[in-house]
Specification:
The protein is an alpha/beta fold. It has helices at about 35-50, 75-85, 105-115, 130-135, 140-155, 175-185, 205, 215-230, 250-255, 290-295, 310-320, 330-335, 345-350, 365-370, 375-380, 390-400, and strands at about 10-15, 15, 30, 60-65, 90-100, 120-125, 160-165, 190-195, 235-240, 240-245, 260-265, 270-275, 280-285, 300-305, 325-330, 355-360, 360-365. Strands 9-10-8-7-6-5-4-1-11 form a nine-stranded mixed beta sheet, sandwiched between helices. A hairpin with a 4-residue loop joins strand 12 and strand 13 (about 280-285).
Length: about 400
């Protein structure tokens, strides 16, 4: 039984990009012509469809992801936010993040995004090495990456995340350290630092790039870079997320703590708690933007499912165990409506294996558990034997920075 609603976020998916990167498995589509007005209309219609699920609640955070959202004009983003505000209440100190590609950074647009209400930028740098950027299929170079960051600062953004990868083809240990040093020198408030992985249904999966670093080199890069980040004052609070004090991504924290979020746009996922009905539902929009735009209203909802006890237990643990400092045990009941007894056997098994620390009030991955997170999460898979794959897919769609 739920005692209250968890925090509520809003994810907005803008699915278009200039060029599909060979490692990308997100719902993004190459185009040189974006129907911006029609798509904004569809986004607002999506939100209107979901309003009966969240009457009386307010949005605590917004994340605009893609694709490349910065391909949209400042005027379109302003029109979108005017429509959002007319439909739903924003929290007074709402965090509003927008993803940006350095290759599409323009000073006028950055100022316009800021004036529309965006107060946090996530810039997809990935590397400052032009050779690595070319291998990754990025449409920008180092100079554009540096310029994009400066344009963001000049536009008034004082909360910026930089995305940076390690484990890149042909990348040495010293090159990975140098990449991160350049990012730290810029002084972003937040860094997302993660290993390149080869995902199914990507060009890299069909034609793997040569000279991929082995596991030992990737681990050495990760350890050296984590020490570098800690020395620079960035605290690791999630597997790939590092921030200056009090600059964590509030939107992503809500995901990892199993809060609620609306998802609007092509392929967007949402998870909503309905305390009065004592249930949690998940909605997914039609994935392909052409099909999505051809439909109207509720016809854009590709699926709606109700999470059962096994789903709730597994999905909560899958997310919350990513948090390095762990979570208070009451959060499990607050955000699932269940008793901790529902996962107690798995918790005790994880504790016996040295993967988890559990004192009755707080659950924290041990250093061993955090280093082998997949093994720790797998202990909760037995609670959810049939539906784990679809959730893993949706989880990748919503993990942004």
């Amino acid at each position: 039984m739920f005692s209250s609603n968890p925090p509520l976020g809003l994810y907005i998916h803008l699915p278009w990009c200039e060029k599909k990167c060979p490692y990308c498995d997100f719902n993004s589509h190459e185009t040189d012509s974006i129907p911006q007005q029609a798509y904004v209309d569809a986004l607002l219609d999506d939100l209107a469809q979901d309003l009966p699920l969240i009457w009386g609640r307010r949005i605590e955070s917004i994340f605009i992801g893609g694709g490349t959202p910065s391909l949209f004009s400042a005027e379109s983003i302003d029109r979108l936010f005017s429509g959002l505000r007319s439909l739903i209440n924003f929290a007074p100190a709402i965090e509003v993040t927008m993803e940006s590609n350095p290759g599409s950074a323009e000073a006028a647009n950055y100022r316009g995004y800021r004036e529309a209400g965006v107060n946090r930028l996530s810039i997809g740098i990935q590397s400052f090495d032009n050779e690595r950027l070319a291998i990754l299929g990025r449409v920008h170079d180092k100079a554009q990456a540096l310029q994009a960051f400066q344009l963001a600062r000049d536009a008034g953004f004082n909360n910026i995340n930089l995305d940076l990868m390690f484990g890149l083809p042909g990348q040495s240990l010293s090159a990975a350290i140098s990449d991160l040093a350049q990012a730290i020198e810029l002084g972003p408030e937040h860094l997302s630092h993660y290993q390149l992985t080869i995902e199914p249904n990507t060009l890299f999966h069909k034609r793997p790039p040569p000279d991929m670093p082995d596991d030992d080199l990737c681990f050495a890069q990760q350890e050296a870079c984590q020490a570098q980040l800690a020395k620079a004052g960035y605290r690791q609070y999630e597997i790939s997320a590092y921030s200056q004090p009090k600059r964590e991504s509030r939107h992503n924290l809500n995901y990892w703590e199993f809060g609620d979020y609306l998802g609007i746009g092509a392929g967007a996922h949402g998870k909503i708690t309905l305390p009065g009905e004592d249930r949690v539902i998940r909605r997914v929009r039609l994935r392909h933007p052409r099909l999505y735009l051809e439909q109207q209203g509720s016809a854009r909802i590709a699926s709606e499912t109700q999470l059962d006890t096994a789903d709730l237990c597994f999905e909560f643990m899958l997310n919350a165990l990513r948090l390095k400092q762990g979570f208070d045990t009451h959060l499990f009941h607050d955000n699932t409506g269940l008793s901790l007894n529902d996962v107690l056997p798995s918790l005790k098994l994880a504790q016996d294996k040295g993967l988890l620390e559990f004192n009755g009030e707080k659950i924290t991955p041990s250093e061993l558990g955090f280093r082998h997170l997949n093994d720790l999460q797998a202990l909760f898979l037995t609670l959810q034997p049939t539906k784990s794959k679809p959730f893993f897919e949706s989880n990748r769609e919503i993990m942004h920075n």
